[in-house]
Amino acid sequence: MISVDEALRHVLDHSFPLASTSLELSTALGCTLAADVTSDIDSPPHDKSLVDGYALRTSDLGGANTQFKVLEEVTAGEMPSCKVTSDSVTRIMTGAAIPEGADAVVMLEETAARDAGTVLIRRSALPAGSNIMRRGTSLCRGDTVLQAGVTIRPLEVGLLSEVGRSQVLVQEVPRVAIVATGNELVPSDHRPESGQIRNSNGPMLTALVRSSGARAVDLGIGRDDHDILAQLVTEGLQSDVLILSGGVSAGVLDLVPDVLKATGVKQVFHKVNLKPGKPLWFGVSSPQGQTLVFGLPGNPVSGFVCFELFVRPALDRLAGRTASTAVRRRFRLACDHTHRGARPTYHPAAWEESVDDQPATAKPLAWRGSADLRSLTACNCLLVLPSGDYTLGAGQWVDGLVI
């Protein structure tokens, strides 16, 4: 068996960003930028007012309650036509351009309008630059505003619109085919008969793929029959990634490795020093390695852990993301925990932020093994526990994977 780190290294060594494509910005949400984006404008495009008030020269404020002539009123979208002089001001609205001569804006609340086009300024002094946002403060023409590898969120959509990108170059979204194998499986809308169980792995893996930003293609249930599995594998190899659930252990009907070999998939590794998830199989389709193939264990918790440790990082790499969607951090144990086992364990746990600037804490769940999917629904992290027999005390530091 190989270690988790070695297995992940093999997976990433065979994972390369997909080709790029140009998309309308309106359809690019959730995609990954394939090229840096530069600005074609300054923002703001001119010095602008941050408040409603009066633009003036601060040197003309000789004391409280100074009266000035109002030259004009300028709203956002208009350009001022008059130059501010020693005895004059311009009434200005938020976002409007600062008139020539003015070096500050006094807030409307600190003024009193007079008849005959005059205003009383109550401020006796005002620092130059007050309530003004200078041209190019947010960004300048030629600035790189977004880098390749960034995931396009609603905020990025707004920024891309500001710099005139109605179309953007993005990485193609990985396409992932999913097959749940096993004669015992029935669809979730069927009531299982004796010896049967509902297919939970297929829907779970489909949801995990979608949560990673990839496109899921559910190929359904594959019976433990060489010809049936070969047909599904052949179809699945048309995608960027193929995930098979079950059939990779040492049972009589664990046919997946042989089927994959027969359909031209080259094995990279089989079995990882890991609990749960030891039977994990990984390979690439031959001869060019264009499809990544994961044979996940059939127990749902094992499949989930292997997806988070190996499949999700591969999908991040295919999508061209610079930052992984899997987040590792450290926690303090919320209670004592005893570990027994010769393999490193990824133990389901529930973590929460602490108050008063204290470290986040994690509580190991009462996990009953790889088939215990119910307990897994209460967890939001996996504690990374080294092999061996030991007891960790409450308050000790442990590593974890946020899910």
Provide a concise account of the structure shown.
The protein has 403 residues and is α+β, with helices and mostly antiparallel strands.
Distance between the termini: 26 Å
Major sheet: size, sense and barrel closure? Answer: 6 strands, mixed
Indicate the proportion of strand residues. 25-35%
β-strand number:
27
Question: Which stretches are poorly predicted, pLDDT < 50 over at least 5 residues?
Answer: none
Strand order, sheet with most strands: 7-4-6-5-9-8
Supply the number of helical segments.
7
Task: Output mean pLDDT.
Answer: 92
Radius of gyration: 31 Å
Look at the helices and sheets and give the structural class: alpha+beta
What level of helicity do the residues show?
10-25%
Shape: elongated
Q: How would you summarize the topology of this molecule?
A:
Layout: H1 4-13, E1 20-24, E2 37-38, E3 48-49, E4 53-56, E5 66-74, E6 88-92, E7 104-107, E8 111-114, E9 118-121, E10 132-133, E11 144-146, H2 154-162, E12 167-171, E13 175-181, E14 185-186, E15 197-198, H3 201-211, E16 215-222, H4 226-236, E17 241-245, H5 256-262, E18 265-270, E19 281-285, E20 292-296, H6 300-318, E21 327-333, E22 337-339, E23 345-352, E24 361-364, H7 373-376, E25 381-385, E26 390-392, E27 397-402
Helix pairs in contact: 1-6, 3-6, 4-5
